[in-house]
């Protein structure tokens, strides 16, 4: 990633963050604390993204078409060490974020979840909307270093998606008219 002048970001070794995450996740309220911490830092991540886009000739983020935004965000997150990221819209209702070799799931205990990433995605994508954005992880590669999948949208749409996932139904057919 091209170095930015963002004073809000500092780098840590992945192992440091993973160890902190592992220790906190093992507490009774650790998962929620990790999501809240991710959300709290999302403004700084978004500011760094804005700076990175400007420094790399990308123009104004709020004027980008969805495909261009998705491509630039994926490039930014990949360069930042998150893994191979892809972002797509699901029937104009939800955002689907796939992360291959997700930094947070790498070497994590199976089933532990990517709570920091979930919170960061909610806050980051919320910078683009005029409503609160919620995010949830629906597939986790923890324990395998595999792919993780997240959904982001309104709380109501995520509740609807969660109900479908819990019933084993096709969540990919969710559309904006489902509420």
**Helical stretch tally:** 5
* Main β sheet profile: 4 strands, antiparallel
Q: What amount of the residues lies in strands?
A: 5-15%
List how many beta strands DSSP finds.
Answer: 4
CATH topology-level fold name = Muramoyl-pentapeptide Carboxypeptidase, domain 2
Task: Write a compact overview of the structure shown.
With 179 residues, the protein is of the alpha+beta class. Helix content is 42%, strand content 15%.
Can you describe this structure?
This protein is globular. The termini are far apart. The longest helix has 26 residues. It has a single domain, classed as Muramoyl-pentapeptide Carboxypeptidase, domain 2 (2-Layer Sandwich). Strand 3 and strand 4 form a beta hairpin. The N terminus is likely disordered. A four-stranded antiparallel β-sheet has the order 1-2-4-3, with helices on both faces. By secondary structure, it is α+β, with helices and mostly antiparallel strands. 30% of the residues are buried. Helix 1 runs antiparallel to helix 2 and helix 2 packs across helix 4.
Question: What are the salient characteristics of this protein?
Answer:
Muramoyl-pentapeptide Carboxypeptidase, domain 2, 5 helices
């Amino acid at each position: 990633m091209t170095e930015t002048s963002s004073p809000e970001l500092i780098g840590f070794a992945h192992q440091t963050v993973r160890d902190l995450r592992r220790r906190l996740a093992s507490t009774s309220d650790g998962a929620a604390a990790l999501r809240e911490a991710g959300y709290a830092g999302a403004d700084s991540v978004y500011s760094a993204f804005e700076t990175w886009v400007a420094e790399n000739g990308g123009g104004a983020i709020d004027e980008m078409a969805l495909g261009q935004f998705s491509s630039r965000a994926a490039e930014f997150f990949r360069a930042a060490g998150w893994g191979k990221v892809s972002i797509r819209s699901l029937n104009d209702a939800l955002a689907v974020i796939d992360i291959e070799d997700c930094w947070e799931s790498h070497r994590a205990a199976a089933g532990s979840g990517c709570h920091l990433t979930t919170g960061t995605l909610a806050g980051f994508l919320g910078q683009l909307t005029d409503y609160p954005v919620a995010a949830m992880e629906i597939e986790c590669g923890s324990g395998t270093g595999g792919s993780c999948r997240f959904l982001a949208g309104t709380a109501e749409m995520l509740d609807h998606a969660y109900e479908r996932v819990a019933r084993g139904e096709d969540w990919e057919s969710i559309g904006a008219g489902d509420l």
